[in-house]
């Protein structure tokens, strides 16, 4: 019988590990998995282990000499100068042992997710280890080595020949995936993120529309710093519905960075758990309306790995598996097991407490600016 | 940066005896707004803008436009003499020429021959490149006293973190001549440690990085 959803996971995901001080920490995937297991919404038969992506598959996006450099770096055989040419050995993407294998496992996980959905094994698949959207053709950047999302989309195009909508809700612009398909009319990319005025990578302007035959298939909403739930969701939902209707995708690939939350240390957005409930609900609804359910969810950023990411990502799975988000208290066993390791008090409930959220003095201005942005975004498809 | 680094060298030109109609055609075909008029020795003797050509064209409101006007020779409507620049001029200097003369195009002339063209669009594009906004980076604005030695202090804090600076701009702080703002684009997705270092060194950062953790 066709499953509703599959969860791609192996402990090997934790080997994608730069160093102890680095903000990117894959322990959040394990935390999410355990949160879901203790909540009884994830069980053994839902989980598929990722396969290793082959070098040919990685080469669907990346140059062979880049892959070679990553391999050599992981073996400790790459010179510093050579590494820097490929963005390897920087503060953002330091070299670590066996980095090629660890990164190939993440790419393989996204390909496993694609195959599970497109061979009809399941309606939806979730690979929270993936979503590394800053990886470029021949450059590592922004904590990303191989761009599993872009490779997965290339793989879908090649093997299944379907029209792909890529939706990126990470607080950083999904630049690597956007540029990989900038001239491709069969892959539509939509990224909502904090404006690049201050935040990495700086791109993702509303006027980045694609080029040549891909013109009109790249969408960006660079929202203001300190945007909160209402404005985020107003823009996101309106834009996503319009874009899906306009593009008529066959499959949706979502990148679910969870760094637009107020607690996230790297960004200036001020969302709460509400956006992380609505994002998967919308993807789910639209996948069923337009794509016969075909939806592949990936992870992404998310740097408060204790208070934000497990709940935000847990809700994606809850929606995939049970059609609805979880409410109420988090399972006791989860809190008991992990609280001692966490640097701050773990939240007691799936939902945030509204009283914890500040009143932003510029709220009205932010909302006005964001609305103008939405109009600019949509004028191309609302003629 | 020099003009020769940003100028276009494949210039679209016309001889003085070409017709206005030819000019109109060239402007539309190449989607350009200016045509230098050159003689047999490629000397710039005039320039024609799309506005000059439009002024010489029959009104679109006329029921039976008389196209004969378009057969006049182009030198009858060209502007002359022409302001030109040299390939070794500084981009910053010619920005002033654009601004002060309220023009949108400058032919580049060397040894009395046309060698290139710079438009205000090229100029604007160059300025965008100079700010570094097209390169992956995070932006930090630091308020510093306007005294010698502040820039190296700030940049050495950044280099201690082994971070690459993509671009640096310095501009005055509002109307207070005692302070400057240093705008730094740094090649990292995680500027938090360096932001903390700068704060610890006593520097004031501008919004949104002026807010200590947690975010609000």
Write up this protein:
Chain A: InterPro entries: AcuC, HDACs, His_deacetylse_dom, His_deacetylse_dom_sf, Ureohydrolase_dom_sf. The complex is a heterodimer of chains A (383) and B (216). Chain A has 383 residues and is an alpha/beta fold. Chain A has a single domain (3-378), classed as Arginase, Chain A (3-Layer(aba) Sandwich), CATH 3.40.800.20. Chain A has helices at 27-38, 55-58, 64-74, 80-85, 99-118, 148-159, 175-180, 229-247, 273-290, 309-322, 332-338, 363-378; strands at 3-8, 47-48, 122-127, 164-168, 187-194, 218-223, 251-255, 295-298. Chain A has an eight-stranded parallel β-sheet, sandwiched between helices. The termini of chain A are far apart. By secondary structure, chain B is α+β, with helices and mostly antiparallel strands. Chain B is built from seven helices and eight strands. Chain B has helices at 3-6, 20-30, 50-55, 91-101, 120-131, 150-160, 192-200; strands spanning 34-38, 44-49, 105-110, 113-119, 138-145, 165-173, 176-186, 204-205. In chain B, the strands form three sheets. A four-stranded antiparallel β-sheet of chain B has the order 6-7-5-8, covered by helices on one side. Chain B has a two-stranded antiparallel ribbon with strand order 1-2. In chain B, strands 3-4 form a two-stranded antiparallel ribbon. The longest helix of chain B is centred in the middle third of the chain and has 12 residues, at 120-131. The radius of gyration of chain B is 25 Å and the shape is elongated. The model of chain B has no long low-confidence stretch (mean pLDDT 92). Classes of the chains: A alpha/beta (383), B alpha+beta (216). Chains A and B meet through loops of A and strand 5 of B.
């Amino acid at each position: 019988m066709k499953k509703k959803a599959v969860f791609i996971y192996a402990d090997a995901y934790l080997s994608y590990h730069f160093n102890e001080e680095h903000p990117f920490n894959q322990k959040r995937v394990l935390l999410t998995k355990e949160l879901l297991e203790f909540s009884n919404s994830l069980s053994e038969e839902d989980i598929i282990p990722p396969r290793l992506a082959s070098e040919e598959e990685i080469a669907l996006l990346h140059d062979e000499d880049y892959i070679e450099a990553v391999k050599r770096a992981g073996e400790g055989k790459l010179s510093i100068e050579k590494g820097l040419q490929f963005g390897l050995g920087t503060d953002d993407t330091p070299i670590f042992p066996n980095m090629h294998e660890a990164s190939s496992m993440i790419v393989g996980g996204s390909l496993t997710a694609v195959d599970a959905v497109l061979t009809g094994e399941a309606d939806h698949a979730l690979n929270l280890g993936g979503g590394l959207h800053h990886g470029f053709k021949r450059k590592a950047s922004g904590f990303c080595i191989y761009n599993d999302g872009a490779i997965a989309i290339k793989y879908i195009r090649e093997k299944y020949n379907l029209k792909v909508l890529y939706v990126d809700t990470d607080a950083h612009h999904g630049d690597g995936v956007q540029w990989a398909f900038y001239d491709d009319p069969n892959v539509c990319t939509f990224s909502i993120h904090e404006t690049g005025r201050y935040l990495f990578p700086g791109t993702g302007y509303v006027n980045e529309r694609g080029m040549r035959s891909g013109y009109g298939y790249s969408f960006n909403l660079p929202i203001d710093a300190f945007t909160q739930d209402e404005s985020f969701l107003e823009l996101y939902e309106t834009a996503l519905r319009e874009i899906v209707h306009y593009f008529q995708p066959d499959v949706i690939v979502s990148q679910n960075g969870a760094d637009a939350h107020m607690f996230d240390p790297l960004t200036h957005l001020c969302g709460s758990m509400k956006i992380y409930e609505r994002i998967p609900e919308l993807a789910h609804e639209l996948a069923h309306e337009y794509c016969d359910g075909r939806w592949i969810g990936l992870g992404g950023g998310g740097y408060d790995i204790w208070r934000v990411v497990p709940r935000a990502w847990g809700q994606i799975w809850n929606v995939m598996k049970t059609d609805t988000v979880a409410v109420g208290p988090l399972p006791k066993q989860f809190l008991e097991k992990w609280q001692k390791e966490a640097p701050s008090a773990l939240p007691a409930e799936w939902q945030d407490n509204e009283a914890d959220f500040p009143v932003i003095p510029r709220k009205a201005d932010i909302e006005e600016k964001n609305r103008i942005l939405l109009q600019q975004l949509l004028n191309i498809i609302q003629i | 940066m020099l003009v020769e680094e940003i100028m276009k060298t494949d210039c679209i030109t016309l001889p003085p005896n070409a017709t206005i109609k030819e000019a109109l055609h060239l402007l539309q075909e190449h989607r350009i707004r200016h045509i230098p008029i050159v003689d047999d020795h490629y000397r710039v003797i005039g320039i024609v803008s799309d506005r000059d050509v439009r002024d010489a064209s029959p009104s679109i409101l006329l029921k039976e436009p008389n196209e004969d006007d378009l057969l006049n020779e182009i030198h009858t409507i060209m502007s002359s003499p022409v302001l030109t620049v040299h390939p070794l001029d500084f981009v910053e200097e010619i920005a002033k020429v654009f601004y002060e003369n309220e023009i949108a195009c400058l032919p580049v002339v060397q040894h009395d021959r046309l060698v290139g063209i710079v438009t205000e669009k090229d100029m604007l594009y160059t300025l965008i490149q100079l700010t570094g906004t097209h390169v992956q980076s995070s932006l930090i604005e630091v308020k510093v006293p306007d005294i010698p030695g502040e820039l190296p202090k700030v940049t050495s804090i950044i280099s201690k973190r082994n971070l690459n600076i993509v671009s640096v701009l310095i501009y005055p702080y509002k109307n207070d001549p005692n302070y400057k703002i240093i705008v730094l684009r740094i090649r990292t997705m995680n500027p938090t440690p360096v932001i903390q270092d700068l704060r610890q060194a006593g520097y004031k950062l501008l919004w949104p990085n002026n807010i200590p953790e947690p975010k609000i």
